[in-house]
């Protein structure tokens, strides 16, 4: 019984490490590729939903800040989510999550 509990704790700790590494990797890729060239396109496919939403927030914050600095009122941004072909069961998870996230922020 004790060995099983230790394995559960180790699995949970490992999952946290993996999740943290995924977030850091996604943020690094965003800062290196997107923000350094200040592109209006964000490619999120191949990311998991939690990491993609964090990267999306960083991307949106950078563009909102840039809009405020430039005095512009709007900008068209392109967000690539993929079709869900790599998702379990072939069902898209990223696109619905991104759409919902944008609606929550009052964006379309």
UniProtKB/TrEMBL annotation:
<dbReference type="InterPro" id="IPR052772">
    <property type="entry name" value="Endo/PolyKinase_Domain-Protein"/>
</dbReference>
<feature type="domain" description="Smr">
    <location>
        <begin position="42"/>
        <end position="108"/>
    </location>
</feature>
<dbReference type="Pfam" id="PF01713">
    <property type="entry name" value="Smr"/>
</dbReference>
<dbReference type="InterPro" id="IPR036063">
    <property type="entry name" value="Smr_dom_sf"/>
</dbReference>
<protein>
    <recommendedName>
        <fullName>Smr domain-containing protein</fullName>
    </recommendedName>
</protein>
<dbReference type="InterPro" id="IPR002625">
    <property type="entry name" value="Smr_dom"/>
</dbReference>
């Amino acid at each position: 019984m004790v060995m099983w509990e230790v394995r559960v704790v180790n699995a949970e700790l490992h999952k946290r490490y993996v999740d943290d590494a995924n977030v850091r990797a996604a943020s690094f890729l965003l800062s290196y590729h997107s923000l350094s060239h200040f592109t209006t396109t964000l490619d999120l496919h191949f990311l998991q939903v939690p990491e993609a939403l964090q990267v999306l927030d960083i991307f949106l914050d950078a563009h909102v800040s840039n809009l405020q600095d430039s005095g512009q009122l709007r900008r068209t941004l392109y967000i690539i989510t993929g079709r869900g072909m790599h998702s379990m069961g072939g069902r898209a998870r990223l696109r619905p999550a991104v759409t919902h996230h944008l609606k929550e922020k009052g964006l379309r």
